[in-house]
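Entry 12.
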Amino acid sequence: MLTSVDPDVIRALGDPLRLRIVTLLARETLCTTHLVEETGAKQTNLSNHLKVLREAGLVETEPCGRFTYYRLRPEVLAGLSEQFAALAESARTTGGNKRACP
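Predicted 3D structure (tokens):
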């Protein structure tokens, strides 16, 4: 059931810029400089969004000299996908159930 999903993960993916960041990180590991170039966002704004994604467990960091690289954690998205798939299956199989009004 969906109740085991961390609400921070869903909230983090609800922002268009954060969803764009996740989409970019699904293709490759990138540093902040790359993400600024790809999104056009200001570095401070981007850093705040990356913090939200890190705290939600969606991305992890890898220090590399004076840069920090960000990598997507696919297992978190896979778990979310499985839970949504289970929810959809439940709706398919019980869609005909209707509770009577009092």
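Annotation: Residues 12 and 52 are 6 Å apart (CA to CA). The first strand starts at residue 30 and ends at 31.
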